[in-house]
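Let's practice the habit of predicting before peeking. Look at the sequence and jot down your guess about where helices and strands might fall. Then scroll down.
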Amino acid sequence: MNKSPIITTFVNQVRHFAHHHQLFTPRGKYIIALSGGADSVSLLLVLKHLESELGITLEAAHCNFHLRGDESLRDEEFCKQLCRRLHVPLHLVHFDTHAYADLHHVSIEMAARDLRYAYFEQLRRDIHAHDICVAHHRDDSVETLLLNLVRGTGLRGLRGIQPRNAHIIRPLLSHSRQQIEQYLDALGESYVTDSTNLHNDVKRNKIRLNIIPLLRELNPSASQSIFETSLRVTEALKVFDEAIQHAIADVTTPQTQNSKLKTQNSPLIISVPRLKQQPSPEYTLHEILSPRGFTSAQIEQIYTSLDTNPTGKIITSCTHELAFDRSTLILQPKTPTALVRPMHIPETGTYVLSDNLKLKVETEECGDRYEPSRTADCASLDASDIKFPLTLRHIQPGDRFVPFGMTGTKLLSDYLTDRKKNIFEKRAQLVLTDSQQRILWLVGERTDNRFRITPHTQQALRLTLQ
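Done guessing? Here is the structure:
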């Protein structure tokens, strides 16, 4: 390879960047995402130059999206010839991008992205490659940062594009588009040009063709300055992430689950007093709720409601529910209601309540040494006055029972409030009634005293959650 200063500098910068970010593993196989454009061609050439030094092997992959007619065929043929000359194995794939976009109701740009990365990942697994190398460069990262600013972003949006994202690595991220073109010119290498990049018909191209040139009028090194700022933000986020994780741990507690009736995913309890003691309560709340689907507007609404404490109010995201409950916020995944309709139990037997929960109903003869169940998941009742069919249902307004050990009736809602049950637990609470709609068992909680086992009980009705 020609040893001109431009080439030497370019190769050295890639080597240093790859080493600093630990992008390559010796004896690893890597896929080059090759479009035929200047960026991906330079990526293939510089990694081919470093292949022996890094101790890696390279293969290339080209996607033909059939979006630009003869241009798409030209790009494919160019990639074939380049890889043949460099003795690099090439994988080709063809996509009907318009059909995919119509089927999934996404834009052409999003369809091409989805198809491309899904194919790369599948190919990586099929040929046992370590990672996929893509040719994003410094200008791409600056464009991404500016796009995030326009759309609205948190601190992470100010990092731009990262050198590694799972199995996607970006060895050219410290280079500008101008440096890439200069490198190819010094090598005397050609590349193809995507004509759609020359039109400002999408947001990214508007930033590339209109906004960045204006910024360079203010500062010729604007792109470099923005990129360096993004690197400093990335380093600062390492400190921030550690601090915010400590803050989240300080204000949250997973709710202990003792009942089989509760969902598999534990609710998260957020202490409002401890949240308010954080240096930035609102941002701490944002870091807890944003990954769970809550929008910035919802998080602001929740935060501004903390002082009024609207106990019982529920706000939902696409995946989670959040409830105000006295001095706490309770966060849990959305789950289907355990029983959509009441379940009728005409006789003894085993009844399936859900995929992992059953109710066993059986009778037992009582002798002098009979021991009734004393666990939350099993109830023993005097069968003499219980009439089938039984009904398993959620609690309803006005439901009353006589708690075991008491003589007077009590509203179930009051009983559960006394037990400090939150709104989600109350909503999920089940009761078992007999044919006269008398409550036999507040399931998993307490039996009705009218049906307690006494020395005179001859036959017991045993109810067991399995």
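How did you do? The longest helix spans residues 222-251.
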